Automatic annotation (TrEMBL):
Belongs to the 1-acyl-sn-glycerol-3-phosphate acyltransferase family. Coiled coil: none annotated. It comes from Accipiter nisus. It holds the Pfam family Acyltransf_C. CDD domains: LPLAT_LCLAT1-like (cd07990). GO terms for molecular function: acyltransferase activity. Residues 95-219 form the Phospholipid/glycerol acyltransferase domain. It comes from the Eukaryota. The lineage of its organism: Eukaryota, Metazoa, Chordata, Craniata, Vertebrata. GO terms for biological process: phosphatidylinositol acyl-chain remodeling; phospholipid biosynthetic process. This is Lysophosphatidylglycerol acyltransferase 1. Keywords: Acyltransferase, Lipid biosynthesis, Lipid metabolism, Membrane, Phospholipid biosynthesis, Phospholipid metabolism, Transferase, Transmembrane, Transmembrane helix.
Length: 370
């Protein structure tokens, strides 16, 4: 079949746009990430004198970095529509997000849709696969205090111990409030077959759009961060509530990400922008932590129920293009989240100005020394 001139022009335009976007992303990383690191090195005396102010500033810089990642998708036409409970209502409280995991774009989607949720982004902690430690953003996550978890049965017990120690050491001391977790333990396409085999063997529901979640990290987070007696955790046991002002973890936010036609966006698409403008849909359901059971067997059942509900939500979405209305209501209400282009341009400009400033400073010291 012959390629028409119009088709060739369209392909050429797409390739040129992808190349320019990739060049911009590389430049963005080269100025923004070193600037983040150098600012925090410069502020180390403040960390000793006033740790709270230091981590406040770090959180602001971290939010700006995530906004830059969000801008790559936003300017490509990848937007988000939100459904269900309004999480802005609990943005100042401590919460754990349980998110289904389909592709690398899930993280970018969350980076975008949480930008307008008050202080959430600068005070959140991410749990992510250890492979992300070796990406361009790994140094940022290490400094911020995110936790990199190794998958696999051989590492499971050790990783849960390390997670508990990490939460005890960094969560309260750095004033974290939200923690993001993907309980499935991997991408849908990689875990679906294994999950379905496990479900069949144990007489559990057959799931196509999600996989059965793993209990370990969720249980550790609840036992470590929930205030005594909130969900049956005995007072004085594992809960780490060292500061009198902290109420502990108060909410669990069941978060379901849905892509049109079930075709997830990956990080390559987010960067290069070769896919047509796409609306990703995110559904929230908020549970008070006191309603979440503490005992392992009951918690496992509760967690399974959340993912069975996700399956129903996604099935309805793929059939109708919308999430179903909440229980007791006849109509589902969606909310289109927005980002300010002026704000995004301002942050990007600051990043490039900072990169130029640090380059000049380092050049000056280099010439002075050599």
């Amino acid at each position: 079949m012959a390629v028409t001139l119009e088709q060739a022009q369209r392909v050429g335009y797409t390739c040129l746009k992808a190349l320019l976007r990739f060049a911009f992303m590389v430049a963005n990383n080269l100025v923004a990430i070193p600037s983040y690191v150098l600012y925090l090195i410069m502020l180390q005396p403040l960390r000793v004198l006033d740790s709270k102010s230091f981590w406040y500033i770090e959180g602001v810089l971290f939010k700006w970095l995530l906004a830059m990642v969000a801008s790559w998708g936003w300017w490509a036409g990848y937007t988000v529509v939100e459904w269900g409970d309004d999480v802005k209502a609990v943005s100042e409280d401590e919460a754990m997000m349980l998110v289904n995991h389909q592709a690398t774009g899930d993280v970018c989607t969350l980076m975008m849709c949480l930008q307008d949720k008050g202080t959430v982004v600068r005070q959140m902690m991410w749990l992510m696969d250890h492979i992300f430690k070796y990406t361009n953003f790994g140094i940022v996550s290490l400094i911020h205090g995110d936790f990199f978890i190794r998958q696999g049965r051989a590492h499971r017990d050790q990783q849960l111990v390390l997670l508990k120690e990490h939460l005890e050491k960094y969560y309260r001391s750095r004033n974290r409030k939200w923690i993001v977790l993907f309980p499935e333990g991997g991408f849908l396409r990689k875990r679906r077959e294994t999950s379905q085999a496990f479900a069949k063997k144990n007489n559990l529901p057959f799931l196509k759009h999600v996989t059965l979640p793993r209990l370990g990290a969720t249980q550790v987070i609840l036992k470590t961060l929930v205030a005594p007696q909130e969900n049956g955790t005995p007072a004085g046991r594992d809960a780490v509530i060292k500061e009198s002002k902290s109420k502990g973890l108060q909410w669990v936010i069941d978060t379901t990400i849905a892509y049109p036609k079930g075709e997830p966006i990956d990080i390559q698409t987010w960067i290069l922008g070769y896919r047509q403008p796409t609306v990703t849909h995110v559904h929230y359901r908020i549970f008070p932590v006191k309603d979440v059971p503490a005992e392992p067997e009951a918690l496992t059942h509760w967690l399974y129920q959340r993912f069975i509900e996700k399956e129903d939500l996604l099935t309805h979405f793929y059939e109708t293009g919308a999430f179903p209305p909440p229980r007791g209501q006849t109509k589902a209400i969606s909310r289109e989240m927005t980002l300010s282009n002026l704000w995004l341009v301002g942050i990007q400009s600051l990043a490039f100005l900072s990169g130029g400033m640090w380059y000049c400073i380092l050049q000056y010291f280099y010439h002075c020394l050599f």
